[in-house]
Amino acid sequence: MTADMNEHAVISPDHQLPAFVPRHKGLHVVMWILVLLILAVPLLLVLHHHEEAKKTAAARPAAPGITITSATAQKGNIGVYLDAIGTVTPVYTDSITSQVDGLVVAVHYTEGQRVREGDPLVDIDSRPYRAMLLQAQGALERDQSVLAQAQMDLERYRTAWARNAIAKQTLDDQEKLVLQYEGTVKNDQGTVQFDQIQVDYCHITAPIAGRVGLRLVDPGNVVQSAGTITLALITQLEPITVIFTIPEDSLGQVEARLNAKAKLPVDAFDRTAQTKIASGLLLTLDNQIDTTTGTVKGRALFANTNDALFPNQFVNTRLLVNTLEGVTLIPSSAIQQNGQASFVYLIQNNFAHMRSVTPGTTNGGLTQVEGINPGDVVANSSFDKLQDKAAVVISNKPVTASTSGSSAP
To answer: Which of 41-45, 67-71, 261-265 is the least confident region?
Structure first.
């Protein structure tokens, strides 16, 4: 009976699946469901967190661009200058010494006086020389009278010779005697002129117009013609020159301009090279190059009507050799260096783009460049933050590069 019941429970009359499932198989299915739930929950959490992060990032405002100032490239002219150190040198400098021996009796100039040519400076006692002049003049008058008497005798001898009243020898002797007296008179005339010059040397006047320096001699001093005592020092101030050097590599372009009869301006600045003192023109170049420095000297002429330039003063000079016209100019501060290469940050659509440029002449804070065009906007600050293709915000209107070709250093 028991066996029949077990067999009936296992196999149904129509041979289908068992009427019930064993308990251990149901537990197995439940366990798999639990495992799937355990794995799915973290995944769902991760996905939820990622979606929330995306929503937060979308809601967060975009990072602002780098704040910069900018400048606009312009088309203009710029000067090609040569900078050098120069020395103010007077056109004329006269160191006056005595040409005679004697006692200084008067000093007519005052220290720092502006004198004109011919103004009195120093008087030396001329009495001994006037006495010698008087003696020479007396000897000249005596010998002139003797010559006149000899010439009168010669005329009488010629008349007598025409009448055969005297011998030919007497006439010849008288002719030679007249020649001797003529020589004596000439010698006396030379002595008179020499003594007159000695007298003139006693009254010393200014040979040039200029400024007298400090007094170097006083009344009562004894001076000698063979001495080295300077009685006065005069320097010409108007006009005045500045001597400076030019590198031999730049000599060709300067000479080319001079040969073309161009007037090359030269500006003189103070020691700091910030303040312009005076403006002049290049006068000439020296005739040889200094082999020790590889430079040639140039001399510039300045009117100096305001006495801004002082003799032996050191100045900074700027020689305008040429002017480049119609070139692209940007502020020198906008150019950056990367090793040997130069570049700028070109601003387009509020983004900075590195652009290689070739800088040329620099003057007055402006530089002539090749590689960009007039009208291009370039960055002029915040270079420590800028990178290629970085977003930027211009804090000012683009600064236009000045095209006036300023001569300031």
So the answer is: 41-45
- Both 86 and 199 in one domain: the answer is no
Band (pLDDT 50/70/90 cuts) for residue 53 is low
Close Cβ partners of 373 (under 8 Å, ≥ 6 residues apart)? 73, 328
Q: How far apart are CA 265 and CA 359, in angstroms?
A: 24
Total number of domains constituting the chain:
3
**Are 269 and 175 in the same domain?**
no
DSSP element (H, E) containing 119: none
Answer whether residue 407 shows pLDDT above 70. Answer: no
Note whether 364 and 34 are within 8 A (CB): no
Beta strands in 31-186 (DSSP E): 66-68, 70-72, 74-90, 93-97, 102-107, 114-115, 120-124
Residues 86, 131, single domain; the answer is: no
Distance separating alpha carbons of residues 344 and 335, to the nearest angstrom: 5
DSSP lists the bridge partners of residue 88 as 242
Same domain, 55 and 76: no
What phi, psi does 245 have (nearest 5°)?
-110, 150
Strands 74-90 and 314-331: antiparallel
Longest dimension (CA), the chain: 221
Give pLDDT tens digits for 282-323.
Answer: 999 999 999 999 999 999 999 999 999 999 999 999 999 988
CA distance 268 to 393: 42
pLDDT band of residue 46 (cuts 50, 70, 90) is: low
User: Token digits for 247?
Assistant: 């590198």
Q: Give the pLDDT score at 49.
A: 66
318 within 8 A of 267, measured Cβ to Cβ: yes
Q: Is 47 helix (H, G, I), strand (E, B) or coil?
A: helix
Q: Give me the sign of the Cα torsion angle 39, 41, 47, 49.
A: negative
Once rounded to an integer, what is the mean pLDDT over residues 22-43? 66
Residue 309: name the closest of 283, 278, 282, 280 by CA: 278
Could you give the CA distance from residue 97 to residue 90 in angstroms, rounded to a whole number?
Answer: 19
Range of the domain at 54: 21-60
Do residues 258 and 394 both lie within one domain? yes
Q: What pairing do the DSSP bridges indicate for beta strands 390-394 and 66-68?
A: parallel
Q: What pLDDT shows up at residue 55?
A: 62
Does a structural domain hold residue 9? no
Q: Which of 226, 313, 252, 243 is nearest to 282 (CA)?
A: 243
SS3 state at 114: strand
Q: Is 11's pLDDT higher than 50?
A: no
